[in-house]
Structures are given as C-alpha cells and as structure tokens.
Amino acid sequence: MSKIPVLEIFGPTIQGEGMVVGRKTMFIRTAGCDYRCSWCDSAFTWDGTGKDDIVLMTAEEIWERLYEIGGDCFDHVTISGGNPALLTNLIHFIELAKKKKIQLALETQGSKWQDWFWQIDDLTISPKPPSSGMNTNFTILDDIIERLTEKNNVFSLKVVVFNEADYEYAKLVHKRYPQVPFYLQVGNDDITNGNNEELLQKLLAKYEWLIDITMNTKEMNAVRVLPQLHALVWGNKRGV
Amino acid sequence: MSKIPVLEIFGPTIQGEGMVVGRKTMFIRTAGCDYRCSWCDSAFTWDGTGKDDIVLMTAEEIWERLYEIGGDCFDHVTISGGNPALLTNLIHFIELAKKKKIQLALETQGSKWQDWFWQIDDLTISPKPPSSGMNTNFTILDDIIERLTEKNNVFSLKVVVFNEADYEYAKLVHKRYPQVPFYLQVGNDDITNGNNEELLQKLLAKYEWLIDITMNTKEMNAVRVLPQLHALVWGNKRGV
Lengths: 240, 240
Ligand code: SF4
Ligand code: SF4
Hints:
CATH class of chain A: Alpha Beta
Radius of gyration of chain A: 17 Å
Number of helices of chain A: 6
Structural class of chain A: alpha/beta
Bound molecules: iron/sulfur cluster
Mean pLDDT of chain A: 96
Number of domains of chain A: 1
Oligomer: homodimer
CATH architecture of chain A: Alpha-Beta Barrel
Helix content of chain A: 25-40%
Largest sheet of chain A: 9 strands, mixed
C-alpha cells in the first residue's frame, strides 16, 4: 500500500476558517506544495525546514494515530497542507475515513484536480491573490469548478486578502464563479509575531478594514467575511 | 396594511453569529419579547427603555428604509428581536423581500411557531439555557423542530453557554435533535463593559474555555463552536 507524507496530526480542535468555521475536527497536514506563497504560514511543509518531521504513513496508520489522540471525541477530519491535491494516493485514507463514517474537509489552492475531490464533504478551493507572488492558472481553475458544479458538490471558494490588489482579485474570482459560496479571509502577514496581544489587535484591525470595504462594494453582496479564529485565540502557535 | 413594530434598521454589516457567521447582511430589529432573559443584550426591545424608539412600519416602509441606507450593497436581511416570532404580520415583509430576491435570516428562541418560518433561508432556533432564568417548553420546541424537519427546511439550533449548567443543557438539546446542525456560542455576560480591550480578553478566554470542554465531550462531536464576531470587533456598541 502506498504511503502518504504526513507532517502533523493533531486535534480535536476547532476549524478556524472558511465554510465550516468553528467545526470540531481533527487535522492532518500533508507535506509538499507546488506553490511558494510569500506569506505561507506552513512553509515548513515545502521549504525543507520540516523535512525530518515527515512521516510516511499508510491510510491505516493515519487512522490509528487519529484514534490514538482523538479517541471517541471526533467525527470530522480536515486534510490540510501544503497542497494535499498533489497526493493521488490520499484516496486510500479518504475511503477508509468514509467507512468509519467520518466527515472530511480539505483545502487546496486549485492548481490540480483529483477525482477524490468529489468525496470531500467540505471542500475549499482557495486560489492565491497577487500578494502571494503566485499566478492563478484560470484554465485549470475553471475546469475544477466545472467538475465540482456538474456533480452538485458542496464546496466553496475562499480568497485571503492582504491588500487592495488582493481584494480586486477576490472580486474577479467571485464574478467569475458567482454561483459558488464565497469567503473572504483576513490575511495574517505577521506569522512570526509571538506577542499575542499585539497580533490580536492587528488582526482585528485588518478584519475591520476588510469588512468595511466589502460592505461598500455592490459586487460583493453574497459573501462571507471571516477572520482566522485560531489566530485570534492562540496567536501563531502551531498544533492547536 | 398592518404595521410591524421596528426598533432598529441598520447595515450592511456582517452577521456576527451562528449558521451564516460572516455573511454580509442588513439588520431589522423588531420590538417585543415573551422572555425576560437575565443577560438579554437587547432588553431595550421589551423592558420599556426603548419604547419611544419603536416605529410602526408597513412592509413597504421597511423595504424603503433598507434601500435608503443599504442601496445596492446587500442581498440578505436578518430579522432579529426581541422575538420576531411574536409577529404574525411579518409575513408581509417576508413576501416582499422574496419578491426582491433578498435572502432572509431570522433568530428566535423557539417559544412560538409561525408558518412563515418555512420561508426563512437561514433560520436559527436558539432555546435559552438555565442561566437565562427561563424555562424551555419542550412540547412547543419538539413541534417546531418537527414542522421544520418535515419540509426539509435548512435551519440550525444554537445554544448560548455562560457556565457548566448551560453546557449540560446544550448537550441535552443536541441529543434530543441530533440531526439538526448545532452551534455553541460563547455568552457575553459583560454587556455594559465599555472597555473594549478588557472585554475582548474576557470573551476570548471564555471562548477558549468553551472550545476546551467541547473538544473533550464525545456527545458533542458534530457541533460548531463560535464567538460573537461583532463583539470581538466592536465590543458592546449597538447598530454596527
Ligand atoms: S498554496 Fe498554501 S501551502 Fe502552498 S505555498 Fe501557498 S499558502 Fe503555502
Ligand atoms: S429571548 Fe432573546 S430578546 Fe427575548 S429576553 Fe431572551 S435574549 Fe432577550
């Protein structure tokens, strides 16, 4: 059985972002990303610094570890990265989780399709705005959105916003796929700040800014604007 | 045409709570409540202090006012109270809003049924825990949940938690209606505090407490735990 490169397994905790914000869940973080976002908050998944922490695990081993730390206290698992969509063999874990009646969430930037996307209960496609330094391949993104829409999958788009250019990009994405539930998220450009009180004030000020501009944009009515709840509660701490 | 007692109309702003947390919306607050919760944050809707601010409005007048302040910048309206479920004639506004292609959210404690519940897109039933000083009539609540479930309405349950007894009550409600999406919300028992920084720290500490106990309760897996986002951003300020 092929193995999945895993960097972190933790929980139960709350999902801090997006379409199931607040949901009790376990987290699995896979290694590897095809992007290099300037503000990546999980660069250890791809920049070599986390290399020695990568564990190659079978689907069964991942399940055992989840059960070992989560016990009976979970029914939902979030797969995060890196970009988990690089891993075709994630299907083994997804099918195992389904058998165990576990609901699944997954986030990816939308640079690569996997057939197992159709089996994710809460799928978030999060294309990256200009401040990331990355370019969106809209041919691929169009195709992903079309495949998901065809099968009536429940999924959402999320764009993280750091500045006005990012906001313009978010408007463009929402306009391109108006039928897809759309989330705006405040960017955290202070990912090394260990002063939680200072970080909190900054994040809330940026959240208020994002709310303000969204409220005044008529092209952005059917949207939800959210902070990262885990950053408000725990700052930049990992594994909570 | 019969008139609706309105206390506040404001927005666009974000919905700070519950099933559509973060959603861009306008707010209408109706007057009157059949409850007297000890920690009610809108006691002015029923304790006489807001009496002189009540305006009796037709559905058309409410719509005109919404459009006057919101312009083209909204497609969603939240009806709040007091208990808007006391007002049978709200149907006139609901039908008008539907004609204008506006989505509707509404929150009520679940003490009274209205046939127009079926027409609300995002309906939250929020029965009150022991700390409120109120008693839940479970015969009425059972009936409301049954009627909504029958017609496959999208709706949710939300319980505000101030202490351990409230949490036990929340467990009981979730167990009674396991198929209904369930939200836990941090109570704000500091509703007159004007020191926003102090309030913020208190609310976040209580949120972390509520997350902690929920994570360790196996009867509370399929739940979402949320703060009130507007209280984190704007403190106890009204009309934002
Ligand atoms: S796509 Fe995500 S994991 Fe990859 S570099 Fe960007 S932020 Fe980091
Ligand atoms: S039901 Fe709501 S509006 Fe009525 S007293 Fe209780 S908290 Fe206040």
